[in-house]
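Pipeline run #58 for the internal structure catalog. This entry was flagged by the ingest filter as a single-chain record with no existing model, so it goes straight to prediction. Upstream metadata was stripped on purpose; only the residue string is passed forward. Reviewer on rotation: M.T. Logging verbosity set to normal.
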Amino acid sequence: MRDRAHQPGPCRAAQAAACFDGPGEGALAGHVTGGQHARLAKIVLDLGGHMVAVIPSPDYRQAKVEPDHAETFDRLTAAADEVLVLAHDTASRHAYEDANRTLLKRADRLIAVWDGQPPTGRGGGTADTVLEAREAGLPVDAVWPTGAARQN
């Protein structure tokens, strides 16, 4: 894979494909509930990549997955080569931080759907994970859809 500096840009199949050297290369996804994260996970799978879904807690689907994203969550976790469900009691900020650290320990690169904004200070967010990846020396590719806005 090629290393790139953070430059948010359109999240298109071509851009995601540029992150891979060829079919069958591994990929990791943490949040596959819907939106841009789910689109990126689908692109990775469509390109022949492998996915390990890291689920922050056993109650994550019931507690955090919105009803209109449940089918996507189920489809993507079923398509994953491996599903790791972390042993946290609830889907909390601490569970998200641990899920992100688990992703980074297993990754050889991070593809982040990220708008480039700094961390919020709450922990467990994409910006925190990008910073941790960079500190660990992992290559980071950040993609952000044209016209997208953060949901707070």
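catalog note: The chain has six helices and five strands.
catalog note: Residues 1-15 have pLDDT under 50 and may be disordered.
status: ready for reviewer M.T.
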